[in-house]
Amino acid sequence: MAFSLEISAHSEIGLVRNNNQDSAYTSPHLIVVADGMGGAAAGDLASSVAIRELQRADAQNLDTEGEPLVGDRMLEALSGALAKANDALADLVEWDHSLEGMGTTVCGAMFDGERYGICHIGDSRGYLLRDGELTRLTRDHSWVQSLIDDGKITPEEAAHHPHRSLLLKVLNGQPVHTPDFTLVEAQLGDRLLFCSDGLCGMVDDDVIDRLLSSDKSLDGIVASLTQAAHQTGGLDNITLIVADVVAYDKALQSMPPQVLGAAEALKIPEIDYSEPTQLSELIEDTTRMPRDRIPVPAPAVIDEELPEGVIDPDRFEAIRYTPRVANKKRRWLGRSILILVILALLSIVAFAGHNYLNSQHFIGPNNEKVAIYQGVPEQVFGHPLSELTHSSEILVDDLPPYYASKVRNKELRYDSEQAAQTQLQVLDEMAERCRAERASEANPESSEPSNSAAPAPEDTETSPESPAPSTTTSTASTPTRSSVSPGSSASTNRPDLEACG
Questions:
Q1: What is the DSSP letter of 481?
Q2: Cβ-contact 403, 455 below 8 angstroms
Q3: Please, are residues 355 and 375 in contact by the beta-carbon 8 Å criterion?
Q4: At 471, is the pLDDT very low, low, confident or very high (cuts 50, 70, 90)?
Q5: Which residues make Cβ contacts (< 8 Å) with residue 333, sequence separation at least 6?
Q6: Does residue 261 contact residue 46 with C-beta atoms inside 8 Å?
Q7: How far apart are CA 107 and CA 343, in angstroms?
Q8: Which H helix or E strand runs over 79?
Q9: Fewer CB within 10 A of the terminal residue: the chain, N end or C end?
Q10: pLDDT per position as a tens digit, 366-415
Q11: How do the residues of the chain divide into helix, strand and coil, expressed in percent and rounded to 5?
């Protein structure tokens, strides 16, 4: 009996990074995430290349007389796609040596209606929730996982190991790094989760299990998992796909493919060996936070004996927090050539800047009410780089103080109008709850418990930390607010950000 997949996916920058190097792809027959690494000029490119080749394999799959590949043929298609992606990364590095060190994890599944064809390389993870039990579909290709396998440390120790980010295999153009491929039988009622380590590296499996087992909608579960990652700091890009195995549904089978994250916007360059270029010189800096407020990873001090070829994804991460500086090797260029280069770059930046402003949205105040603006809240020579697109009836003062401050300071930024509208609905719910709580405190005699009263904070499993500064999401419904309770392993010492004050 063939089944269908009901899917919800999400990819965002997180609370600290400057850009999103994660990518994802969903279709009725393929769900996959890719976590790029290698600094601002390369990680997003690497994950986009992987997603491009997998997307092509998915399209070719559907072209074979309209029927998807089945069984081992799925694994052959996935293997071929990742081999092509690996070759493409090698060609890009050969063309532009500044891309040396880029790579990407890949984790996902092709689905033939009865089996999952799993592909995996790196430390992104796949989970299966079946009959109330959560199991991992993948094994991390990481240094700490090898220590666990050798019995040198426990999984609990691995979660806090200083070298837990070191990887043994990624897709980076090297032929020695081969992915894992497995077939798993599907069952009606299965729930799948594929995610980058912005989720599974920040949130414990028991918390993932609890949130994934929720009876919320898929969109609500995706929102809850994202907020759990925010609670632990949101230090990395967050990308996840949640899919339920349901009875065969023609509507689900005809859902169009969706690309998320870096691969959605990044154009992969066509290699021209006659005109080599430094792609890193063309990357726009998207710094949002002062460097002194960001926990830039310190160089790892390795006290274990590492195998040859171990990969440190954090090696280039400081680039993602630091404005780019001029390449010293170009200082010998004549003034006239330098001017031409600057003019060319300004033209590119002007074009990219125009497109960037049109794609950006933020939530801010408008006459003491909450509103959505298109653009960014900064000004250039006194000229605002934004315009009002939607004004709500939500009063800023009705919000919890934390979110009221975020709105006044115009800190809630998003990559799409849909994401901003979704957050506006969340703010509306917060404001309504705070008005009720404040009215109850002002008139205690009328605050008797009733079935219509809002549940107390302790009655809910979760409550959000801060919303995503920038999102690109496939969810259409309002995310259900939830996060980890103070007593759980993913909680923080920070106050309740939804407290009405």
A1: P
A2: no
A3: no
A4: very low
A5: 341
A6: no
A7: 41
A8: helix 72-95
A9: N
A10: 998 999 999 988 888 888 889 899 999 999 899 989 899 989 998 999 98
A11: 35, 25, 40
Q: Say yes or no to pLDDT of 315 above 80.
A: no
Asked whether 118 and 186 are in contact (CB, 8 A), the reply is: no
Residues whose CB is less than 8 angstroms from the CB of residue 430 and which lie 6 or more positions away in sequence, other chains included: 399, 400, 403, 481, 498
Average pLDDT, the chain: 80
* Six token digits for residue 291: 């460097």
Cα–Cα distance measured from residue 315 to residue 358, given in angstroms and rounded to the nearest whole number: 33
> Which residue has 């901003």 as its token pair?
420
Structurally, at CATH architecture level, domain 3-201+236-265 sits in 4-Layer Sandwich (3.60)
- CA 287, CA 338: separation in Å to the nearest integer? 25
| Per-residue pLDDT at 335 | 62
Q: Which region among 123-137, 275-289, 298-312, 344-358 has the lowest average model confidence (pLDDT)?
A: 275-289
Q: Determine contact, residues 95/173, Cβ cutoff 8 Å.
A: no
User: Which two structure tokens, joined as six digits, stand for 58?
Assistant: 């998915």
For residue 140, the one-letter residue type is D
Q: Do 237 and 22 touch, CB atoms closer than 8 A?
A: yes
Higher pLDDT, 457 or 53: 53
End-to-end Cα distance, the chain: 55
pLDDT at 36: 94
- For residues 9 and 24, the answer to whether their CB atoms sit within 8 Å is yes
Asked if residue 110 lies in contact with residue 192, where contact means CB atoms within 8 angstroms, the answer is no
Q: What is the 3-state secondary structure (H, E, C) of 396-456?
A: HHHCCHHHHHHHHCCCEEECCHHHHHHHHHHHHHHHHHHHHHHHHHHCHHHCCCCCCCCCC
CA distance 395 to 388: 16
Interatomic CA distance for residues 259 and 48, integer angstroms: 10
d(CA 119, CA 475): 25
CA distance 413 to 423: 10
82 CB contacts (<8 Å, ≥6 apart)?
50, 53, 54, 106, 119, 121, 171, 179
Q: Match 């969903």 to its residue by tokens.
A: 26
Rounded Cα gap, residues 202 and 222, in angstroms: 15
Please check whether residue 29 is in contact with residue 61, taking contact to mean a CB–CB distance below 8 angstroms.
Answer: yes
Cβ(379)–Cβ(385) below 8 Å: yes
